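Re: weekly structure request thread

Next one in the queue (330 aa):
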Amino acid sequence: MTNPSSRAPIALTCGEPGGIGLEIAEKAWQSLKEELPFFLIADPDHLPGTVPHQMIDDPAEAAGLMPEALPVFPHPFGAPRTPGQADPENAEGVIDVISQAVDMAMSGSASAVCTLPIHKKALKDGADFAYPGHTEFLADLGGVDNVVMMLASEMLRVVPTTIHIPVSEVPAALTPELLEDTIRITAKGLTDQFGLGNPRIAVAGLNPHAGEGGAMGHEDASVIAPVLDKLRAEGFDIAGPLPADTMFHAAARARYDVAICAYHDQALIPIKTLDFDGGVNVTLGLPFIRTSPDHGTAFDIAGTGQANPSSTIAALRMAARMADSRPQSA
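Done, posted below.
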């Protein structure tokens, strides 16, 4: 494992300047300045200025500055920041900051990337952003085809196998190949980035009562169960397919390290109910660590001082723990 005292700082990207990202970055520094080093990549002219900040030329400078000021790696943008509004002229800057953070993580000058929320329409309008979202862009930058979205907190880790598609399309999209890839990537991520030697994996059924022997749908027996049998034969610690409605009470959660779910809401409703402010978005399968707060730009409260930094603080802390758990060769 990495020695925390020698860990490189975490790169925090600014996200959409008109959203709440820069405000919660400053609030996160207030909470974490004595705990863990990170630096913000942003246009200095966009900073709300509620805390002291210090420009840096090298990420290595961040640790020494953290107790006194928010370290900022400056990156110029095309337009001023207007809280509550996305300006397409800033799109190139938002994209370039993400690329710069990934370069730093890949080179080792940053131990992880933590991304603040972006506004996809502004990126498309201003820079012809060709990706559905952050995750797909990061996968491209990392040179990988398949990644997994995990939502994690101190109480629960969940992975939706299918993500942003209509529920009516889930049965066709939930293929054996996708499920197997999702489980393999999740298991490797929990081993390499969370220090779990042989993670305990619980897999939810698609249908009520996991199909109840075919009475409530065939997918659990014909699609999910054969994949789990194959992986169990390889040594994976897997339970399922399980009825989703009995997987998330306290005693059930104690029996697994991650819940693999069939679709978006099956995974996200329980974690957001249990820990709405502490949930962290983690991308597994990348050649670098990436975390993110589990919320959007919140234009409606940008500039009002109401933004809650809890999820960003949790995301930075999780990134640090993941970096500390990585093998030295990783």
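The chain is about 35% helix and 15% strand. Residues 176-194 form the longest helix (19 residues).
Next request, please.
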